Amino acid sequence: MTILDEAQPRAPTAAIREFLRNSISLADVTRQIWSGRLVVVAALVFGLMYGLLQARRAGPLYSAIVSVMPAQTDADMGGGGGGAIGMLASLTGGGGGSQVPKFTQFLFTIGSVGVAQRLDRDHDTVCVIYRGLCDPKTHVWKRRTGMRAAFNGFLARVAGLPDPNGPLTVIDLAQFNAGAIGVTKDKATGLVTLSFQHPNPNFAADYLKLVLTTANDYMREQDRSTQRNMVEYVARRLSTSTNVEQHQSLSNLMLQQERRLMMTEVNAPYAATILDGPTVMPLNTVLRTTMLNGFFWMMIGIAAVLFRNVVPKRYRFWSRVWPRS
Predict the structure, then answer these.
(1) Residue among 298, 282, 268, 313 nearest 74 (CA)
(2) Which of 195, 171, 243, 162 is nearest to 68 (CA)?
(3) Between the N and C ends of the chain, which has fewer C-beta atoms within 10 Å?
């Protein structure tokens, strides 16, 4: 073998493999964990007991489920296509485009600020949802205290932002709805399931149905205002149009817009209708909470065993528990 052959660099994979072989030994890691098995077992037992305590403190939990589907008005009004919008655009020289189906708009509207404003206006929902911080009679908000509240307040002051520990608003309610109301879509049937969890089974069902009804009413109100403006606009164009073909197109458009406006006046589900539910089922999270806490604390115990030699010797008060490694 020549000197040139000895000087040739090794492949990167071979160098990495040799480095791992020399620096990490699975047998050594296993031996260290086994030597501190009492600590790992103690951490696991503590985690399991703590998980049981957390589940006990959390109390019972119920899940309300509602299966919804597009309302008949969505199909009747041509929710999936351009419809009158495309016809109007062709008359005014613009691009037609496509309209988002009302059912899709409805699913987005659930977590919108507009729905949250309507909920709070009609049902005082902000104070109801956050009743631990709000007095439902006086509407006086309790100031949040504790380490987390103090830390959030400090960060807000540094950034020059408003106080995060003040009264909650409809924006907080909108964020709550977006996070607490789960939306699951069945790819095979296209049906959508809405779910909401709460310790009170009656409140879970009532609130989920209330949000669904409010989102429908909010969309109905928005579309009613839009359709009225459209009818007024087309009526003005009809009164000034002299072209026969354009006048005929405007007449057809007027009929379509009046039909859409009529649909917003009908007392029926507007964008989404309930197919099944609300159905309330109890949720047993004891096993999941217990196992997650047990696994978490077991990993802490393993980390403590593996890195115990990093601590200076004068602070190793556990020498009687662990043998020297």
Answers:
(1) 268
(2) 195
(3) N
Strands of the sheet containing 192-198, edge to edge, are 181-185, 192-198, 61-70, 272-283
Helix/strand/coil percent split, the chain, to 5: 60, 10, 25
pLDDT at position 140: 84
pTM over 0.70: no
Comparing 320 with 180, the larger pLDDT belongs to 180
Q: Which token pair is 311? A: 């601590």
First-to-final CA distance of the chain: 43
Taking alpha carbons only, the member of 266, 129, 104 closest to residue 208 is 129
pLDDT at residue 218 is higher than 70: yes
**Both tokens assigned to 159:** 């950034």
Q: How far apart, in whole angstroms, are the C-alpha atoms of residue 153 and residue 71?
A: 45
Angle of helix 26-35 versus helix 286-306 axis, rounded to 10: 110
For the cut 70, the answer to whether the pLDDT of residue 240 exceeds it is yes
Hey, which residues does 67 pair with through a beta bridge? Answer: 193, 276
CA distances in angstroms from 63 to 60, 98, 156, 169, 202, listed in the order given:
10, 37, 35, 25, 10
Instruction: Locate the DSSP E strands across the chain.
Output: 61-70, 181-185, 192-198, 272-283
Radius of gyration of the chain (CA): 32
56 contacts 290 by C-beta, under 8 angstroms = no
Token pair 């419809």: residue: 83
DSSP conformational letter for 102: H
297 contacts 43 by C-beta, under 8 angstroms: yes
Find the length of the chain.
325
pLDDT in the model for residue 320: 52
